[in-house]
Automatic annotation (TrEMBL):
PROSITE patterns: APO (PS51499). The lineage of its organism: Eukaryota, Viridiplantae, Streptophyta, Embryophyta, Tracheophyta. It comes from the Eukaryota. One of its GO terms (molecular function) is RNA binding. InterPro entries: APO_dom. PANTHER family: EUKARYOTIC TRANSLATION INITIATION FACTOR SUI1. Residues 118-204, 231-316 form the APO domain. This is APO RNA-binding protein.
């Protein structure tokens, strides 16, 4: 099957390259050579870890406050804080946008050959014609089913997920969307909004471009280093821009104390391109993955697993995570190795 799929889609091996453009195009750090299994999901009451240590954030805020006191009105020199574009990132924005379109198109074609399963009650995804038997369901009435998943056919959005955010027409003049504007301002994929703010022009999503740098007046706004993205510390909401929006739509932990406002913090690439890890299947025509053998199974991002099952070689950076070198025992040998 892998050979036939590879012959139908000769460009499948380059699809992983386009996926990597999405994740590192805007200057994220390189992935380690080897990676272990992804950590389990956070508890709902836990906050996301800060990408930048809190001590660094506090020191940076103090330095900016002292700078505003010393020079309350000054011309911002560095883009994008002065309203101008960063020249070297304009081409990157176009390449990332094209990579996203190419990945979505490629995934939709691969789904015609390699089936994807999605649990009816939780966000679990599985690549293959038959869902696995690993008991990890956390959806409604999962206790009655002993955490067994109930599978249905999945789609493109289950393989690769791009969270949406509010589109900003003027990221400098009006960097925030108010609660009363939640229905009048359009929401688009956050990665597309990031590309637009970095220099991509789309007719259906107009944005204000400046030819002259703006001034910073004491108390109007803080200086940005790059095109920043904010995420809620408790829910998946993201917002591209210097500040998070003020729409009261958070329903995660402790939202009552914030009156529904999000607890904004610095976002990571995983917040913009949502990773969906799935169990790695060695043989699509073999038996379903057994719950008692889950310690021997590896994982991979769903889009990587889809490409591998369709015939693409396993990327080196995912070989450890996918447990390629681990040979699981047969089902009748479980009691012998337990």
């Amino acid at each position: 099957m892998n050979r036939s799929v590879r012959s139908q889609f000769p460009g499948i091996q380059s699809l992983s390259t386009r996926i990597r453009t999405l994740t590192v195009g805007f200057g994220e750090g390189d992935d380690p050579l080897y990676a272990d299994l992804p950590k389990p999901s956070r508890m709902k009451v836990e906050r996301k870890p800060y990408p930048t240590p809190m001590k660094v954030l506090i020191r940076r805020a103090k330095e900016e406050r002292e700078s505003r006191k010393a020079q309350p009105c000054r011309l911002l020199e560095e883009p994008p804080g002065n309203g101008l574009l960063v020249p070297e990132l304009v081409d990157v924005a176009h390449r990332v946008y094209r990579a996203r379109e190419s990945v979505l198109f490629g995934v939709s074609k691969l789904l015609d050959v390699v089936p994807v399963q999605r649990c009816r009650y939780c966000f679990e995804v599985h690549i293959g014609s038959v869902g696995h038997e690993i008991r990890t369901c956390t959806g409604p009435n999962s206790g009655v089913r002993c955490a067994t998943h109930v599978w249905r056919r999945g789609g493109v959005q289950d393989v690769i997920y791009f969270p949406s955010c509010f589109h900003l027409y003027d990221r400098v003049g009006k960097p925030r969307v108010g609660h009363d504007e939640r229905y009048s301002v359009r929401r688009i994929p956050a990665i597309v909004e990031l590309c637009i703010q970095a220099g991509l022009d789309l007719e259906k999503y107009p944005t204000k471009r400046r030819m002259k740098p703006v001034y910073c007046i004491e108390g109007v706004r803080k200086i940005m280093e790059k095109y920043s993205v904010q995420t809620c510390g408790y829910c998946p909401e993201v917002q591209v821009g210097p500040k998070g929006h003020k729409v009261r739509m958070c329903k995660a932990s402790k939202h009552q104390s914030r009156n529904g406002l999000h607890a904004w913090q610095e976002a990571t690439i995983d917040d913009v391109v949502g990773p969906n890890y799935v169990w790695h299947v060695r043989d699509l025509h073999g038996p379903a993955l057994n719950n008692n053998l889950k310690r021997y199974y590896g994982k991979a991002p769903a889009v990587v697993e889809l490409c591998v099952q369709a015939g693409a070689p396993i990327p080196d950076q995912y070989r450890s995570m996918m447990r390629v070198d681990v040979v699981p025992p047969d089902r009748d040998e479980v009691d012998l190795v337990a």
